[in-house]
Amino acid sequence: MEKPIYLDYNATTPIDPEVATEMLPYLQTHFGNPSSSYPIGRSNKEAIEKARAQVAELISCQPEEIYFTSCATESNNLAIKGVAWANRNKGRHIITSAIEHPAVTEVCKSLGSQGFEITWLSVDQYGRVDPEQVKEAVRPDTILITIMHANNEVGTIQPIEEIGAIAKENKVIFHTDAAQSVGKLEVDVEKLGVDMLTIAGHKLYAPKGIGALFVRKGTRIENLMFGAGQEKGIRPGTENVIHTVGLGKACEVALRNFKQNQQNMQTSRDRLLNGLVSQLGNLVHVNGNLENCLPNTLSVAFENISAHTLASFISRDVLISTGSACHSGETTISSVLQAMNLDFKTAAATVRISTGKHTTEEEIDFAVEILANAVKKLSL
Ligand SMILES: Cc1ncc(COP(=O)(O)O)c(C=O)c1O
Fold it and tell me: Of the residues 162, 169, 178, 279, which has the fewest C-beta atoms closer than 10 A?
């Protein structure tokens, strides 16, 4: 067992060995520009189209509805600003939630300072948006609803299908940031009823530096960048062939082993929680609702603990992240935990532990020992 044990898979994942093998020739010999008409160019164009089909298959859309980007942040920017600018003559109202990733909130804030009006929906104690509130917030000038599929910090899954139905009924474009859910939950754009969906490569065992955006045929968006005509002009610039091939393969692998991976992530997460509870009893407080949560995510607060002290204390053995930021001795609580109305003390004691598809029982048992001992020591 290699140490430290990595239990921060919501932050990023390692590249799957099958993905790395698929990418290798594009690092070595397959260097042609996909726009070139000679064979090493054309074959790279074909590799991109193969990847597009692999991504499309994972989320049940048409390949031509997939646009490759550099990351989830770019996909979110393209989706939100793209719809805002393309529809600004129709309306300037956007609905989002209080628990989005900064890659959505900052885009909305920026549009808010450029003449758009943003409605920020609150969430319940588990971090869930109420579809009734979405319905009430829709106005004749609403052009976009953007609500994430699953939250990165606490794992809460949003009622996307219900919101999708509301969006459709009111003819409002609906975008979801699925950076955390693709590869962990079933993601089918038809069932979810979304018009746009964000994918992040590095959260599903592809490399960092690649993302994708699903844009339903007929959804009008304006591009952020202008240049030559790559990605149908929506996202111009010579394609990142190596990483695109990697994302395609990662989607194929995710689909092939989906149930098994999901089961393993959840079994590991549950074993971890059971271990912690059996060692620490009521010092353990779970944030969110595990019945409606990503299978790999555990947001947990330990009574009388500083999450930062705990995470750094165990970092030689186990890697986890915290629910707050600490700058120059001052603790800032995450906006997600704030929106869930968690009190300061619990939020400052919150860590996020996220398991991966290959996390083993041995790793979990070791992590439980390390965490439980550290909590006992630090809460003295
Ligand atoms: C839900 C969600 N959206 C967007 C992002 C941004 O991803 P990236 O930094 O790869 O652009 C993340 C990353 O943590 C995320 O969890």
Answer: 169
For the CA of 74, the closest atom of ligand 1 is 11
Which protein residue has the closest C-alpha to ligand 1 atom 14? 11
Buried b (16+ CB within 10 A) or exposed e, 163-187: bbebbeeeebbbbbbbbbbbbbbeb
Question: Is the CB–ligand 1 distance for residue 179 below 6 Å?
Answer: yes
Architecture, CATH, for domain 17-256: 3-Layer(aba) Sandwich (3.40)
Does the beta carbon of 103 sit less than 6 angstroms from any atom of ligand 1?
yes
Averaged pLDDT, 187-202: 98
User: Under CATH, which number does the domain 258-378 receive?
Assistant: 3.90.1150.10
Q: How many residues does the chain have?
A: 380
333-360 pLDDT, tens digit each: 899 999 999 999 999 999 999 999 999 9
Q: Comparing 17-256 with 258-378, is the CATH topology the same?
A: no
Distances (CA, A) of 102 to 22, 73, 149, 295: 32, 9, 15, 23
**134 in ligand 1 pocket by Cβ < 6 Å?**
no
Q: Where are the alpha helices (DSSP H) in the chain?
A: 17-28, 39-59, 72-86, 102-112, 131-137, 160-169, 189-192, 241-256, 258-280, 307-313, 335-339, 344-348, 361-378
Domains of the chain: which residue ranges?
17-256, 258-378
pTM score, two decimals?
A: 0.97
Distance 261 CA to ligand 1 centre (A): 21
Among 203, 334, 352, name the best residue to mutate to test ligand 1's pocket (greatest count of ligand atoms within 8 A of Cβ). 203
Does the beta carbon of 177 sit less than 6 angstroms from any atom of ligand 1? yes
Return the C-alpha torsion angle 293, 254, 13, 180, nearest 10: -30
Residue 328 reports pLDDT greater than 90: no
Local confidence band at 330 (pLDDT 50, 70, 90 cut-offs): confident
CA of 200 to the centre of ligand 1 (A): 7
Cα–Cα distance between 55 and 186 in angstroms, integer? Answer: 13
